[in-house]
């Protein structure tokens, strides 16, 4: 194979690997949930990419490290989204748990969901 053909394979393979995280990023953004993956996986994944990027720069494999930098950016975005969503989900869960009241009279049951509203403390 000629050098340009080998480089082309490197760029194509790198591009495919780089876009692998796009579906996960999109799903996390749309569902506002990042509980599907762990911090440990994300940190190990990014650490492995950093080491590999350094290696690819040292051996002058341009096609490899450019695509890996793009992949690292997406992994970092996923990590930030997970941290952001986890923080804001816990905060909003504490604030927005509705109270439920059930009234039963024989065969008929009435369920009423009352959203929490901020209550003011009253000094008596």
From TrEMBL:
UniProt main location, coarse: membrane
InterPro entries documented for this protein: PQ-loop_rpt
GO cellular component, one term: membrane
Membrane topology listed for this record: Multi-pass membrane protein
Annotated TM spans: 6-26, 38-57, 63-85
Iron-sulfur is among the record's keywords: no
Location of this chain's protein in the cell: Membrane
Keyword Transmembrane: yes
UniProtKB keywords: Membrane, Transmembrane, Transmembrane helix
Protein name (database record): PQ-loop repeat-containing protein
């Amino acid at each position: 194979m000629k050098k340009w053909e080998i480089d082309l394979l490197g760029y194509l393979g790198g591009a495919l690997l780089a876009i692998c995280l796009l579906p996960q990023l999109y799903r996390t953004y749309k569902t506002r949930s990042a509980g599907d993956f762990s911090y440990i996986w994300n940190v190990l994944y990014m650490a492995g990419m950093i080491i590999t990027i350094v290696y690819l720069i040292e051996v002058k494999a341009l096609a490899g490290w450019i695509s890996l930098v793009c992949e690292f950016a997406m992994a970092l975005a996923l990590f930030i989204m997970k941290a952001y969503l986890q923080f804001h989900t816990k905060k909003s869960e504490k604030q927005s748990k509705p109270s439920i009241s059930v009234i039963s009279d024989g065969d008929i049951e009435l369920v009423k969901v009352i959203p929490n509203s901020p209550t003011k403390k009253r000094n008596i």
